[in-house]
Specification:
The chain has 594 residues and is of the alpha+beta class. It is built from 20 helices and 14 strands. The strands form four sheets. Strands 3, 4, 5, 6, 7, 10, 11 and 12 form an eight-stranded mixed sheet that branches. Strand 13 and strand 14 form a beta hairpin. Helix 10 packs across helix 18.
Length: 594
């Protein structure tokens, strides 16, 4: 199994040239994010990832988490790694310095999070949900809850979880049955929750559960759900830990991947009821929880980028070492490393280019998040939020699909050795598979995108985005840029036509539109990815012409962008046809008959 090295040069390129770190650092409160500081942060994150987290990735997968009598033990080395993680202040990168955070942009935190997830995705799930918990409390929590819980969450001494679904509910949260009963200044929570990542473990002193439940007099459906903070241990007035709350882990799941991450079944209120504290207003739990869910969706999309990068690095390193077959372009009978063979080059370029496109899109969304939070102009903040709302389902779904496809291709590059667990290639594929299911399956992301974000607003935000994409019009006669621009124009035209059809058709035939929702999300992701790669190629060409920087790096960027245009972006027209004409068989199908 290969080692992991943070792709620092790629990360800095995207931060500075594509995602606009300079503009983000000019926002109020983010002025400390200077290029030198950000470079140092990324480099130090890379050291911790390669030296501490990555070596535990394989061993944790083999050892698994262990559950016995309500106690969950993480694999060997996890506790020490987590201690080093929080001692370095890494959990608080994007959060308020008044509560112990670093006060850096979400854009910088996104880059650092990619590094953690590439090194060890199972480990990184713990801080991922803690960060979502912090964002939720910062936005919706009372002053008392913030004072009691934020500092310990930001430091990472305590972690946070998300308790949404139940055995009978799945994604349909309107069907949850967990109950909350008013009891003075708090509530008594009872019920069972499933699929709770790091719901029980031995890494932190306390676990802060964010739990959806219903009050006895709540209205039916999602409008009757409230949100509660339910700590594993109650917190005394002086901040010390008090008695154990009435909650427990009853089992952990046996999973396809991310085996070093415990996924718990949690039971609340088996005795007197678990004490919980209301977050936000009664019956507005879904509204509040969406803050955490959107944070997590962006983070899960980044998992797709991260696992793709890890799988690519391993496949590339293997191809550089594996000797097999002669070079078809040479008269020599000697076998060569497989990286000389055109089909292996094709697979590696496919892995590399799609990872780069997904990274650029995820980082751009993170920069948009910073603008939506902090831009001093109300109108620009609102437009940034609208764009972010559009981008989040795309980042989540398109990037995680790429993560799976790239990891799958990585197995193929290894050949038969890729199917052997000892090489580690199979683990990347197993770990990647959950990301397209997390935080609402990718099909649900597509439905959200096409229904709420496009049809409901008559395509306004996506039309503004299309106009921005059309501004990519390189004036150079360079063949690569010309080809990329041509492919991007074709994709943009397909997206524009598909959007018009969605807006026109949804009011009268929503099922026809929803049948093509996944294809629409793929088309939007492809087009955005093509735009990112086009900008990458244009910037790289300018750097080369001016004699700036690493020439080999910029030449490789142009090759990767050209490959993406010729081999990936070219699929855009077919997605348009699937959207507009492909619903007939779907809507006509009846699986109740053989």
């Amino acid at each position: 199994m290969s080692t992991y090295t943070a792709p620092s040069q790629d990360i800095h390129f995207v931060l500075n040239e594509i995602a606009g770190l300079g503009d983000v650092a000019s926002l109020p409160g983010l002025e400390d994010a200077t290029p030198d500081l950000v470079e140092a942060v990324v480099e130090e994150a890379g050291k911790l990832a390669s030296d501490v987290l990555a070596p535990l990735n394989r061993s944790g997968d083999i050892e698994n988490c262990h559950f016995e009598n309500g106690v969950v033990r993480t694999p060997k080395g996890s506790k020490d790694a987590y201690r080093q993680f929080i001692e370095g202040g890494w959990n608080g990168v994007p959060f308020d310095p008044d509560f112990g955070g670093q006060g850096l942009p979400w854009l910088v935190s996104t880059a650092v999070s990619e590094i953690w997830n590439s090194a060890n995705m199972a480990f990184s799930l713990c801080p991922l949900l803690t960060q979502g918990t912090i964002e939720l409390l910062t936005t919706h929590g009372s002053e008392e809850l913030q004072t009691t819980f934020l500092e310990k969450l930001i430091s990472g001494e305590w972690n946070g979880t998300m308790n949404l679904t139940e055995p009978q509910a799945g994604t349909d949260l309107a069907r949850i049955k967990s109950r909350a009963v008013r009891d003075g200044d708090h509530y008594r929570i009872s019920g069972q929750k499933i699929f709770i990542t790091y719901g029980e473990h031995d890494l932190t002193d306390n676990i802060i559960h964010m739990v959806l439940a219903r009050l006895p007099d709540a209205p039916e459906g999602v409008k009757g759900i409230s949100l509660f903070l339910v700590p594993k241990f109650l917190v005394n007035a002086d901040g010390s830990l008090g008695e154990r709350n009435d909650l427990k882990c009853v089992s952990i799941e046996h999973k396809l991947g991310i085996n070093a991450s415990p996924t718990a079944v949690m039971s609340y209120g088996d005795n007197d009821g678990a004490i919980g504290y209301l977050v936000g207003a009664e019956n507005e739990g879904i509204k509040c929880m969406f803050t955490m869910m959107n944070n997590a969706r962006l983070a899960v999309g980044l998992e797709g980028v991260a696992i793709a990068e890890r799988a690519y690095q391993q496949a590339r390193d293997y191809a550089l070492e594996r000797v097999q077959s002669r070079d078809a372009s040479s008269n020599s009978p000697d076998a060569v490393t497989i990286i000389h063979h055109p089909d292996v080059k094709r697979m590696l370029l496919s892995m590399k280019s799609r990872t780069e496109a997904a990274r650029a899109l995820a980082y751009s969304a993170a920069g948009t998040l910073d603008a939506a939070n902090r831009h001093p102009d109300d109108a620009k903040r609102a437009s940034a939020q609208a764009l972010l709302d559009l981008l989040i389902p795309v980042v989540k779904a398109w990037s995680t699909d790429i993560g799976i496809d790239v990891a799958n291709t990585g197995v193929q590059v290894h050949g038969g050795m890729g199917y052997i667990e000892e090489t580690g290639a199979a683990q990347h594929l197993r770990d990647a598979r959950i990301a397209s299911i997390y935080e609402g399956t990718n099909g649900i992301q597509a439905i959200d995108l096409i229904g709420r974000k496009v049809a409901r607003e008559n395509g306004e935000t996506v039309s503004t985005l299309i106009a921005d994409i059309r501004r990519f019009a390189p004036t150079t006669t360079n063949d690569d840029l010309a080809a990329i621009a041509e492919r991007l124009e074709t994709a943009t035209n397909a997206l524009e036509k598909a959007t018009a059809w969605v807006v026109e058709t949804f009011p009268t035939d929503p099922n026809a539109v929803l049948a093509g929702a996944n294809s629409y999300l793929s088309l939007l992701g492809l087009t955005l990815g093509g735009w990112m790669m086009g900008r990458t190629a244009e910037i790289s060409l300018n750097k080369l012409e001016m004699g700036q920087g690493d020439a080999a790096f910029y030449k490789a960027k142009i090759i990767s962008a050209r490959f993406f245009a010729d081999q990936v972006l070219i699929e855009a027209a077919s997605y348009h046809e699937k959207i507009v004409s492909g619903s007939v068989s779907i809507t006509a199908s009846d699986f109740s008959v053989s």
